[in-house]
Write a structure and sequence with these properties.
With 126 residues, this protein is an all-alpha fold. It is built from five helices and no strands. The chain starts with a helix and ends with a helix.
Length: 126
């Protein structure tokens, strides 16, 4: 990296950090949301399947513990039909997938709200 581009990168980071510190609470949230990329349709399907798989495992756990007894991970994994390690992996992947989907949906909500606000402002000027 050249000296000039290194200085620009450093300046960019310093400027961004100063700018972020001046944001209000809502602006900070909007800024954080905007840093995440949009999901492609095939990614949504893949993430949705991971979340459904996790939800199915959690439903099995709920069904097994309806009588108030705590069940072991071994019992839970056996009932699901996988090993304990595989169950842990399904739960972790599902959790991350759910977080990604929620973040992507927050981007959508912010976008729709922004367009609605712009539309309302333009309609008010008529």
């Amino acid at each position: 990296m050249s000296s000039c581009s290194s200085k620009m990168l450093k300046f960019s980071r310093v400027w961004r950090n100063k700018w972020v510190k001046q944001l209000t609470g809502l602006e900070t949230i909007l800024f954080a949301i905007s840093r995440h990329r949009r999901l492609k349709p095939e990614e949504e399907v893949e993430l949705g399947k991971a979340v459904q798989k996790m939800s199915a495992c959690l439903e099995v756990k709920h069904r097994l513990s309806e009588n108030g007894q705590e069940i072991s991970k071994e019992q839970w994994a056996t009932e699901v039909g996988c090993s304990e390690a595989e169950l842990a992996r399904i739960l972790e992947i599902g959790k991350r997938a759910k977080e990604q989907m929620v973040t992507a949906n927050l981007r959508l909500v912010v976008s729709v709200a922004h367009h609605q606000a712009v539309f309302s402002q333009r309609a008010g000027k008529l």
